User: Fold these one by one.
Assistant:
Number 1:
Amino acid sequence: MTGRSRENFNKNYIDYVHSFAPPTQHFKTCLRAFFVGGLICCIGQFLRMMLGLAGLTGDVLAGTVSVALIFLGVLLTGLGVYDRIGKNAGAGSIVPITGFANSVASPAVEFRTEGFVYGTAAKMFVVAGPILVFGVTAGAAVGLLYWLMAL
């Protein structure tokens, strides 16, 4: 195939693919992501305020809110609701703590038919595993550097 015919073929193929794909509405998508991500953060702030009124403070308050948001993310993933939120909200549903909970729970739910060990347990960290490994390694390296600097 010559260079010109290859370019023409590529252009025809791209035009063919675009004829089936709906055009992306970037502004609308970004607006939805902004509002859904903000709503998730508002839910976290609401939990923080309510638990603060209940008497929790400091690290106990922060840990309890984090656990509650993780639980909500996993629960909504298990019920299939988080996938619908993600489909409509896009990146707005990947707010760090609930999105991370979804990335761990989603493969576990998807592969549960393969059994507990080879399905749920083995596939649970397929998406989140590299993030955990990098996070733990980076945290250990920074801690080691901090410890060496303090000597």
Number 2:
Amino acid sequence: MNVLSELDPLFESPTIKPTFDYVHVLLSLFLFGENVEGIGRYRLQKELEIGAGTVKSLFNKLKDVTKFIIVPSEGKLNAGEIQRRGHVLTQKGFEFLAKVNKKILLLKKADLEYLKDIVIKQEDVNSYFCLVKKGSTKLSNGVEQRDAAIKVNGSGATCLVYDGINLFFPTKTAFKDDKDKTKINPKTLNYFKSEIEEAKVKIEKNDVIIIGSGDNYQKARLATLNAALTLF
């Protein structure tokens, strides 16, 4: 069963369908996981590039429907003063995030200096990249992933397939040998291998790297993650 199906109840409504999407849910959980001290609605609104009403609905659904987040106990500092830490992941939330992390092993800012042959437009562009485990089985030529990135106001997305030795641009046809493949330059390959090794994860044959771009880092991150969701 696709792990994303566990999020379906968040989108069930007898009246108005939520205006957030699966990518906003996933990214919010990534952010909660990175910020164990808690996140408030205003911070999440900025990170997800959505409106105040939408993020409020998302918070309520994550808290009441899936039970993925809670508000920690509020402790008084002085008379009349309340320390608010925002929302944090529940044990159930951490367990779901762990399932997602088995598929998306890494989501990180990318250095454009190493991506000159991949990201065509360099000016006013920011990039993120992620590593999707065994993603090549659902990958064609990368058009679906590019469209998914644009859908969330990103500039686009580029996919690279790892064959166990090198990274290649995807193609519709099956590879017969290395002559049929367009592989990236060694400098870029070494950059990705270094970033992946630093994150203490492992890249293996048939894994896919997705580079998403946007006119700010928030949009680039959303573009990368939404493109990755097409490979689930």
Number 3:
Amino acid sequence: MEPDIEKISAEAAKLGCIIEENALLKNYTTFRIGGKCSLLIKPVSEESFSVLIPLAEKLDVPYYIFGKGSNLIVDSDGINGIVFVIGKDFSGISFRNDETMICLSGTPLSQICLSALENSLTGMEFAYGIPGTLGGAVFMNAGAYGGEMKDIIHSVKAMDIKGNYKEYFPDELDFAYRRSRFTNSGEIIISAEIRLEKGSRSEIKEKMDKLMEQRRSRQPLEFPSAGSTFKRPAGSYASLLIEQCGLKGTHVGDAEVSTKHSGFIINKGNADFSQLMELIGIVKDTVKNKTGYVLECEPQIISDKITTERNDGR
């Protein structure tokens, strides 16, 4: 490792963080695509962030923030720098009152949904089955089946690159379709307050089960993917446009436009970054040429060959 990365690794060890050198990032993305990074760190406390992020900034070491890697496309050739994985080692749920949950950013959405169910709280059902963490969901204002994170978030605690903390409330979060203030701010999401409403436990479970069954029946969950590959363009739907263009089943190597749901590009086995990006290009060019619509990728693309945001989300 480079000397500066070794310094960060040493500090991370002092803080009790879990460290992995030359980590294979395909093991940390739902697409199962991605090469190695110099150092992977799993923070275990707020202090981990307040020490390590400013240190990386001071030493000018590039870094990325991962959650479950469910909204990422990572270069098979690997990336330079450090990857911070905010997951089960920085997760947890507590209650401020009967209707307010405080969740650390590494907490899986599925766990939050089940906790809401256990406490007969409604409003979170839409997120059941979204394969991400709270931090990633807030970062991109995740949503499904008519619900979005903006509907239930009361406040978010975040840290800037200098280690300063701030609490943001709904009118400061700039939530929009698949984005938030954090999309470009460089801040690290630490935790969030979720406000729900009391409801019928049986009705909540029924709705969760129904939505999960819809996911299983309509989406290619049996294959690695990053969920919906393209954002919904104004005036139409990406999956509809892709299907109208006859692109279902189109593939480059093991990267394929799903025959089950054309909005998903899937990894049928050993797809790599170049195959995936080539297929994305084919889909975008074909849809633009045939319909005039310009599709935009929903997952964040992380590659040293492509200019991206430094803190790319989850």
